[in-house]
Structure formats: C-alpha cells, structure tokens
Amino acid sequence: MPIDVASYLKFTPTDNTGSFAADTEGHVYYDDSEASLKHYDGSNWGRVSRDLTWGITPGYGPYTVDDNTKLLIHSDTTDDNTTFDDSSSSDHTITRSNALHKTAQKKIGATSMYFDGDGDYLSIPDHNDFDWGNAADFTIDFWMKALDDTALYPSIISCVTGWGGCKGLIYFDGATEILYFTNIAGMSVQSNDTLQDSVWHHIACIRDSTVFKMYVDGVAQSDTDSGQYDFDISVGGMTIGKNSWNGEDGELKGYLDEIRFSNIARWTSNFTVY
C-alpha cells in the first residue's frame, strides 16, 4: 500500500488501493502495483522517469566531467562573484568582462551567470577542442534564461573574428526572438518558438554525423540541416555573451548556467530535462 508522506510529497491517499480524494496538479505518489513513482500533471497520472543519472540528466544536478567534456562552466558560488572557471580536464582560461554570478536567478546550484547586455561577456582563447571541422560530432548545451531586449542580434556563443570569418555562432534574431545555430557559411538551424521569454530553457546544439539539429527542453526542433559544413567556434578565440561585430546589438541580456561543450553527440532523439 502507499506510504503516507503527505507532508513532503503532496500525497493524499484515501485507502490502500492507491485511490485519491482529489486529483490535484503537483501531487505525487508511489504506485507499488507498478513499482513506479507517479505525478499528476493536471489531467493525467504519469510515471516519473527512473532513468535520471546524477550529473548527466539536464536539470537534475550539476554536470560531472567525463572524457568527452571539453569545456564546463558551472555557476554555484556567491552573489556578484567574478571568478569563472573551466571544470573540464582541459582547464581552459576564461577571461571575464563585467559578467557576474548572481543569486537572483539560477537553474542549478546557488547562482547563474548574468550578462546585462552592456559589455558583459566571457572570452576563451583559440583551441583545437572547439574546432570540429566538417565531420566530427559535437554538442554545445546550456541552460538559458534570455530576457526581452532591444538588441538586434544578441549572441550566446561566437568566435571573435568578424561575420565573414566566423565558423560557429549561436544567437538570437532580436526582431523575431528565434534562436539560431549557424556556421555563417550556409548551415543554419533555428528554434520553433521565440525564446527571449524570461523562462529557463535547456538548449542543445548538436552535430550527429552530418546532421545539425537543435533541442529545446529536450525536444528536437523541426528545422535541421545536413552537410559537411566546417564548424570552428574558436576562430580567433571564443566569446560567450556577445559577438564581436555588432557592438551592443550583439550582446546578450540574460542568464546562463551549466555551459558544456562536448566532442560527441550527447543526444540523438528527444530526452528528458528537469
């Protein structure tokens, strides 16, 4: 029979069959007939995933480093802290320009990285870890809470060289608030929906073989691109929070958390985020 843990699981059993006095959104109970934890979403009781792995499932905790992690920037520190470290084994040098860790917003841990759209960014020197050429699999994933802004092309990830020389870019079209994942020279993938909405989203930009795709909150976006496009996010060095050719129109206003670069395609189908 279900165990009464109502005080901390919002659990309201009425008998030993697992029936409930009211189906209320947010309620959780353990169904021992199916050996499954269940959650009521407002219309249905669904199984809570038991496939969560600490350090791997987005949102379930801070990422842990594995052999495929080439950059990992956590944010779990104190308000207004100015230290940004790469927790991967590569230990890339990260230079800060005005960006801060803030307790006001966070997805994982005590803080997130804040970029105010006015000179806030991080820079990382050119390195082969971020040069995936025209064939290697890779994943760039992060949590993002992008704020509504007047900037025309606020950029999340970019290389330092100008528009013509950049071979990797993740940015917003400020007019439509659609997120783009592109290599400038031809490949371009976009989100289905507007994302400068002040909501936390998990973003994963992936090349799986020759297919470029974007996942938003674990859901594959309808727009994909295929081909052997060169993708080198490090040309001239890399910036996080801006691009180098649009001035303030290229600067991000919002929060980022758990930024990770990997040399594999970490997901090839829809996946669960928390």
Description:
The protein folds into two domains: 6-47, no CATH class; 69-262, Jelly Rolls. It contains one helix and 19 strands. The protein has one helix at 6-9; strands at 28-31, 36-40, 45-47, 69-73, 95-97, 100-102, 112-116, 121-124, 138-146, 155-159, 169-173, 178-182, 188-194, 201-208, 211-216, 219-220, 225-226, 238-240, 253-262. The strands form three sheets. Strands 4, 6, 7, 9, 14, 15, 16, 17 and 19 form a nine-stranded antiparallel sheet that branches. It starts with 5 loop residues before the first helix and ends in a 12-residue tail after the last strand. Mean pLDDT is 88; it is low at 1-8 and 10-18.
Secondary structure layout:
Elements: H1 6-9, E1 28-31, E2 36-40, E3 45-47, E4 69-73, E5 95-97, E6 100-102, E7 112-116, E8 121-124, E9 138-146, E10 155-159, E11 169-173, E12 178-182, E13 188-194, E14 201-208, E15 211-216, E16 219-220, E17 225-226, E18 238-240, E19 253-262
Antiparallel strand pairs: 1-2, 2-3, 4-19, 5-8, 6-7, 7-19, 8-18, 9-14, 9-19, 10-11, 10-18, 11-12, 12-13, 14-15, 15-16, 15-17
